[in-house]
UniProtKB/TrEMBL annotation, chain A:
Pfam families: MNHE. It is a multi-pass membrane protein. Keywords: Antiport, Cell membrane, Membrane, Transmembrane, Transmembrane helix, Transport. Signal peptide: none annotated. This is Na+/H+ antiporter subunit E.
Automatic annotation (TrEMBL), chain B:
It comes from Mesobacillus zeae. InterPro entries: PhaG_MnhG_YufB. This is Na+/H+ antiporter subunit G. One of its GO terms (molecular function) is sodium:proton antiporter activity. It is a multi-pass membrane protein. Pfam families: PhaG_MnhG_YufB (PF03334). It is found in: Membrane. The keyword Membrane applies. The keyword Kinase does not apply. Belongs to the CPA3 antiporters (TC 2.A.63) subunit G family. The chain crosses the membrane at residues 40-61, 70-93. Keywords: Antiport, Membrane, Transmembrane, Transmembrane helix, Transport. It comes from the Bacteria.
Length: 158, 119
């Protein structure tokens, strides 16, 4: 991915030198044409076309924001309810992610999800231990959310 | 347009302050370290972020200055706050702080016991 971006910047500079005009506008035009060239020659790269990955990162960021908003509303409801009928607990969540940074992002996402908080990561990076605010009614929903998070992170790292 | 922005600024700052207040309520009401950590690591994060966002918009509208430091502050809080919540609850668990009495499951304790037996 980094190589393709570097190549694109390089192509933009070549465009600037061909035009002998050194303004940001020319750079962006050259960058756009370089993007088209890289898209045309995408099958010669070992990795995927990098714009896909950029889109995946943006999607992940939007998921982050949405979850933060929803979790705040959920916590607000629990705190301001007059009777405290929560059932907290710690459950184990097996994960398929392997890289350290992927697990960090997943743990951050889980912490910002409604009603869950990561307490510990097992030493072999296979299981996350998650403290849930309300364990029975959220377990299923949380598992499905986790699957969507894991998928979104895998789309970035693929 | 300016009226809309003023409305947005008020909304951001007020809801941020409200969330911080709710965090304080949560710290008082909730029963144990872990549930309190839920309130502290979520509502406080978003509360501070919203207040900073309101300040950013206000400064831009009022003086025309775009304070990129506020933007950086939002990004840093967004990245570091969940991690600090995780570290606090982990440290609490490792130093043996008990869960609340009404807690239903504890898979981590089971796992710890298992590894202690096999060792």
């Amino acid at each position: 991915m980094a190589f393709q971006i570097l190549l694109n910047v390089f192509l933009a500079f070549i465009w600037m030198f061909l035009k002998t005009s050194y303004t940001p506008a020319t750079f962006f035009i050259g960058y756009f044409f370089g993007l088209l060239i890289i898209f045309t020659f995408r099958r010669f790269f070992s990795t995927n076309f990098y714009l896909n990955k950029v889109l995946a990162v943006i999607k992940l960021f939007l998921i982050f924001n949405k979850e933060l908003f929803l979790s705040n509303i959920a916590v607000l409801k629990v705190i301001l309810r007059p009777k405290l009928n929560i059932k907290p607990g710690i459950f184990a969540l097996p994960t398929e992610l392997t890289e350290d940074w992927e697990i960090t992002i997943l743990a951050n996402l889980i912490t910002l999800t409604p009603g869950t908080l990561v307490v510990d990561v097992s030493p072999d990076n296979k299981i996350l231990y998650v403290h849930a605010m309300n364990i029975d009614d959220t377990q299923e929903a949380i598992d499905s959310i986790k699957n969507s998070f894991e998928k979104a992170i895998m789309e970035v790292s693929r | 347009m300016i009226v809309i922005f003023k409305f947005l600024i008020g909304l951001f700052v007020l809801s941020g302050a409200l969330l911080s207040l709710v965090t304080a309520f949560g710290l008082l009401r909730l029963p144990d370290v872990y549930t309190r950590n839920h309130a502290a690591s979520k509502s406080a994060t978003m509360g501070v972020m919203l207040v900073l966002l309101g300040a950013l918009l206000y400064a831009y509208l009022d003086t025309g200055h775009f304070h990129s430091r506020l933007l950086l502050g939002i990004a840093f809080i967004f990245m570091t706050s969940p991690v600090s919540g995780h570290l606090i609850s982990r440290a609490a668990y490792n130093s043996g702080v008990k869960l609340w009495g009404n807690s239903v499951r504890d898979d981590l304790a089971k796992q710890r016991k298992k590894t202690a037996n096999t060792r």
